[in-house]
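Journal club side-thread
Mid-discussion, someone asked how the predicted structure for our own chain would compare to the paper's figures. Pasting it here so we can look after the session.
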Amino acid sequence: MRRSDGLTPVAAAAFLAAAMALAQPALGAGAATGDAAAQGGGAATGESAPVEAIDGFRSARFGMAEAAVLAAIEKDFGLKAGEVAREANPLEKTTALVAQVNDLIPDSGPARIVYILGYKSKALIQVNVVWGRPVVEKPDLKQLATTANILQRYFMERHYAPGSVYVNR
């Protein structure tokens, strides 16, 4: 079944999860329960917090060189450089470092994290996270939807600039 935007439910959930996973510093138990206080957000206490900035993904920071990104991947996921695929994009002339991980978020299943290095800068410019297809041939739809909902709730409770977060559009 296709949605009005042309995406299948699996593709839509994977896209949502990937789009929202970019900024997640380290989702823990608080994210799974929706507990804003456990996540460090001010929503549970009613206090006003400063606008949060997205400066990377976990230990990797935008602007890092390839060697530093590989070191961050090893720190975050225990993957050595030889376990991270290096792919060239001939059209964009960028380089991608691709890490396969399980349970990036507790009980989320297999995920592919793609760290993209700029053509001229050779530095980290983008991070994509994908669950579902093409990571696994037959994704668990309930697990995928649960992961997307956890991420959506997590990011809606963060303090990003007004008008910079869009949900279900």
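Post-session note: Residues 9-156 form one domain.
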